[in-house]
């Protein structure tokens, strides 16, 4: 049942909705927009200007500021463009998202998992595995070219107007879409696209791509979609080629989006990367299972390499804390995958590099000698080792391996990957 103008607008501007929106913006933190206001300043600003903001929204006079363009490097080259709205605009966007989500949730597909309540990447991977193990062994992997940059504003607003009968809210969303972009202090109009980074963008992307979901369902296809990452699973290579052709035509002609044909492909599960995961056939039970993709593992190793660089002038406690956050975060994301061998390999490499860091931080001969003695090395041997002129790597792989043992490193605060893996798979 659609809500009328006044009901939805009053819900948007209610004290409870705005209070929750403010709390979520503060919790998510994030960078400042073009006005330089930080999240910690939001409380004080709203205490003075909230009534003014509410009145502007009611009279269709609220004017969002341009988003700040931020470029994030991609692992495979190129950049991902993010748009950072001001803190106040994020607050208003969040308030809109909270009242529109209950309207759209019942309309969204069961095969859509991205940016929705009580749904996550893990569910998309498990559903894909279910299809694969039901015999759908061909994957149609369609890559949408810069999806967030290419969304057609008119098509999106038309879709929203079918379900949202509040002119003030539709007008406000339209203003956010057309608010523009600041690139190095130069203003650029936003004629198309819904910049990633805004609190409203995930919902708008799902509204747009729900049309694709409904089309795939109408064709009786099995698929999973997380934001603009979608794979379709079929039973034969001929069916896969046919689906690739027909669905690409639908996306470009009906949705006005672009399909990147150089990245889109038809393949077997072992050859794809989906949401950071790869897939393999377990020889023991003959079932397809998930694992972190090789590129995801390389990205992790690169991050840990930076954290264990001897050039980083940080304390051991800070270094161990950063390593812990990286390992625990990675483990939580890939917990449904199989990566025991990766865990062993990464653990050994991190310990090796950490021993080099510690040896360098001890620096002076006297410091090294005292530290070695405190770790149980006899005085004479400690003096000889402290005067060792071998390279850091040689020291770390020889006597430091016996002094800074795995047990001691763990007691000092190093989190082991293998322990995290076993914890998730016990």
Jot down its keywords.
single chain, 4-stranded antiparallel β-sheet, 54% helix, globular, alpha+beta, 4-stranded mixed β-sheet, 426 residues
Strand order of the largest sheet: 2-1-4-5
In N-to-C order, the SSE pattern is HHHEEHHEHHHEEHEEHEEEHHHHHHHHH
Query: Which structural class should the secondary elements be placed in?
Result: alpha+beta
The radius of gyration over CA amounts to 26 Å
Mean pLDDT: 93
What would your notes on this structure say?
The protein is α+β, with helices and mostly antiparallel strands and 426 residues long. Helices cover 54% and strands 12% of the residues. It is built from 19 helices and ten strands. The strands form three sheets. Strands 2-1-4-5 form a four-stranded mixed sheet, with no helix packed on it. A four-stranded antiparallel sheet has the order 6-7-3-8, sandwiched between helices. Strands 9-10 form a two-stranded antiparallel sheet.
């Amino acid at each position: 049942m659609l809500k009328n103008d006044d009901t939805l607008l009053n819900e948007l501007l209610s004290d409870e909705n705005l209070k929750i929106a403010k709390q979520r913006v503060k919790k998510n933190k994030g960078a400042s927009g073009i006005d330089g206001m930080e999240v910690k300043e939001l409380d004080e600003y709203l205490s003075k200007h909230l009534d003014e903001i509410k009145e502007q929204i009611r009279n269709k006079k609220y004017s969002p500021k341009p988003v700040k363009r931020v470029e994030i490097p991609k692992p495979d080259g190129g950049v991902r463009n993010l748009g950072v709205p001001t803190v106040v605009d994020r607050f208003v966007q969040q308030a809109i998202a909270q009242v529109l989500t209950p309207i759209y949730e019942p309309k969204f597909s069961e095969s859509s998992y991205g940016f929705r309540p009580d749904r996550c990447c893990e569910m998309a991977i498990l559903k894909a595995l279910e299809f694969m193990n039901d015999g759908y062994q061909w994957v149609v992997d369609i890559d949408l070219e810069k999806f967030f940059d290419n969304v057609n504003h008119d098509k999106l607003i038309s879709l929203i107007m079918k379900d949202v009968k509040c002119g003030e809210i539709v007008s406000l969303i339209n203003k956010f879409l057309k608010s523009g972009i600041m690139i190095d202090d130069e203003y650029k109009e936003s004629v198309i696209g819904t910049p990633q980074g805004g609190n409203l963008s995930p919902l708008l992307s799902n509204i747009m791509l729900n049309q694709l979901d409904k089309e795939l369902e109408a064709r009786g296809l099995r698929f999973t979609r997380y934001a603009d990452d979608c794979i379709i699973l079929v039973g034969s290579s001929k069916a896969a080629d046919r689906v690739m052709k027909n669905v690409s035509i639908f996306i470009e002609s009906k949705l006005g989006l672009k399909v990147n044909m150089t990245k889109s492909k038809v393949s077997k599960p072992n050859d794809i990367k989906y949401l950071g995961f790869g897939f393999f056939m377990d020889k023991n039970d003959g079932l397809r299972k998930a694992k972190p993709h090789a590129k995801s593992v390389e990205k992790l190793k690169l991050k840990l390499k930076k954290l264990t660089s001897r050039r980083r002038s940080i304390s051991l406690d800070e270094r161990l804390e950063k390593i812990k956050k990286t390992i625990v975060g990675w483990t939580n994301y890939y917990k449904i995958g199989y990566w025991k061998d990766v865990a062993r390999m990464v653990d050994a490499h991190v310990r090796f590099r950490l021993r080099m860091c510690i040896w360098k931080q001890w620096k002076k001969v006297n410091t090294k000698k005292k530290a070695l003695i405190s770790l149980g090395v006899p005085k004479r041997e400690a003096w000889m080792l402290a005067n060792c002129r071998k390279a850091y790597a040689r020291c770390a792989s020889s006597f430091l391996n016996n002094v800074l043992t795995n047990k001691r490193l763990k007691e000092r605060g190093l989190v082991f990957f293998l322990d995290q893996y076993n914890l998730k798979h016990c």
